Amino acid sequence: MFLVFHARFPKQGEAHELRIHQMFMNKDGWPVVAPYRYGGEKLTAVKKDDIAGDYSYVNHGKAYLGAIEEPESITLKADGTVTGALEGKWRKNADNKAKLTLGGEEFDGVFLRQWDPVSQSSVMTFTAVSESGESAWGTRLADLNDEQIVNRVAEGLSLGDITKVTADLNLPTTGSRGTTIAWSSSDESVVSAAGKVTRPAEGEPAGQATLSATIAKGSVQKTVKFEVTVVPSASAALTAHYAFENNLSDSKAKYADGQTTGDRIGKEGGQIGYEAGVTGQAATFDGASGVRLPNNLIQGSSYSVALWVKPEELTSFTPTFFGAKDETHWLSLLPKGSVGDQTMLWGGSASWYDGVTGLKIPAGKWSHLAFSVNEGTLTVYVDGERKFSGTGFPDLFAEGAESTFALGVNWWDAAFKGQLDELNVYQGALTPEQAAELAK
Fold first, then answer.
1. 3-state secondary structure of 408
2. C-alpha distances in angstroms, 36 versus 11, 118, 299?
3. What is the secondary structure of 263-281 as a DSSP string?
4. Which residues of 389-411 are buried (b: 16+ CB within 10 A; e: fewer)?
5. What are the two backbone dihedrals, phi and then psi, of residue 81, each rounded to the nearest 5 degrees?
6. Is 228 within 8 Å of 162 (Cβ atoms)?
7. Mean pLDDT per segment of 10 residues, for the chain of length 440 residues?
8. Looking at 35-96, which runs of residues are DSSP E strands?
9. Are 359 and 367 in contact (CB under 8 A)?
10. Using the 8-state DSSP alphabet, how is residue 177 labeled?
11. Positions of E strands within 277-409
């Protein structure tokens, strides 16, 4: 019996591969799925001595969401107890039946030897389902002592390129196989032990700090140091300003007027009105119309967009500002986004990116939204406060590429209903001071 499905992978968009996993029945007649893809393995008798050891353990729960469950480290000890992230007990029944009690929950399944593509070796695994219907997998790890484990974590610990830091750093506090990672900084005013980055003001020298990561397991410790350079802030330069004073013109007269469109990009029709806004007049969107902005409004890998937003209603995936290289390489500034209904800057779909803010702006009130992309570092502001900072944002608007831009519409989703005011487009990333000033 087999489970056949296709799988997508982080940061690879809609690209997918076929997966075939073998399935078995536990003692209660419930199906359990092998952790690794099928490699010709058979369910045969296994020895208890081959089962005992350290495991990477994943409880998939009962949800079917896009979020990836993080593995935990547990140890199935030779005396039948379980220690680590979860405590409990285990035993092997008959040739290969698995019985585990983990965190007070009983799981039944099978022990199975499979090929692990990461370690490139045959490893012991288990797959089981709990009485409440939660599915769990475990894969046995190589036998290593604490010193070897700490050394491996230290060798693999990386912060990426830290020679030109502009955004907060993600500092992991746990490593594989039950290791902990404690951080300290030589200068908290540059980068804190939590990874919070404070950029020097424009014109000041770059900030320098040493981050120290102490990796520990049991009585073994090892410290790894990282030399961090934080570059000064640099003011973004305004390149376009659409004030919506009873027109769709760029007040800087650099770019062409916006053009009214229907409820999708490229659809005829639509009507934009004007009412009192934050400053003078604001553009009013009726939920069936949008504005097509000039092509190539943004070019390059460092840019910013800011505008005032007053949604009359909040609908999922509805854009305020939308920009795209093509239908699979785009960004969209959403009042109500794809992650917990949060206001966010969403990137897709060849490579998904969630710039979540931790909040949802209200309907019927003005909110100021802004975002900056600086050589792959994304920063999102709400009402002048930084709410998200992350790296790895895709390069969408390279020089010379033909790009599409719009307000209130994209190619797929419900059109925006409400008001927009004071659209500003910049070359370069906004400084925190600029973002705060724009929201006043």
1. coil
2. 21, 11, 44
3. SSTT------EEEE-SSSE
4. bbbebbebbeeeeebbbbbbbbe
5. -95, 160
6. yes
7. 87 80 95 96 95 96 77 95 95 96 96 94 97 95 95 96 90 93 98 94 94 97 98 93 98 96 96 97 98 96 97 97 94 95 93 94 98 94 95 87 94 97 96 94
8. 53-61, 72-76, 81-84, 88-93
9. no
10. G
11. 281-286, 290-293, 302-311, 321-326, 329-334, 344-349, 353-356, 367-374, 377-382, 385-390, 404-407
pLDDT confidence of residue 391: 87
Name the one residue in this structure whose structure tokens are 């460092």: 302
Contact 33, 135 (CB under 8 A): yes
pLDDT of residue 66: 63
Tokens 């487009």 locate to 425
pLDDT value of position 13? 65
pTM above 0.90, yes or no: no
Euclidean distance between CA atoms 124 and 406, whole angstroms:
54
Decide if 281 contacts 419 (C-beta within 8 A).
no
Q: β-strand 417-427 against 329-334: which pairing, if any?
A: unpaired
* Residue 265 to residues 225, 260, 273, 408, 431, Cα–Cα distance (Å): 50, 10, 18, 9, 32
Q: For residue 75, which amino acid is it?
A: T
Token pair recorded at residue 435: 């973002």
Amino acid present at 60 = H
Please give the Cα distance from 33 to 129 (Å, whole number): 9
What pLDDT score does 12 carry? 67
Which residues, listed in sequence order, are joined to residue 386 by a DSSP beta bridge?
A: 381
**Dihedral class, residue 17 (left if φ above 0, else alpha if ψ from -120 to 50, else beta):** beta
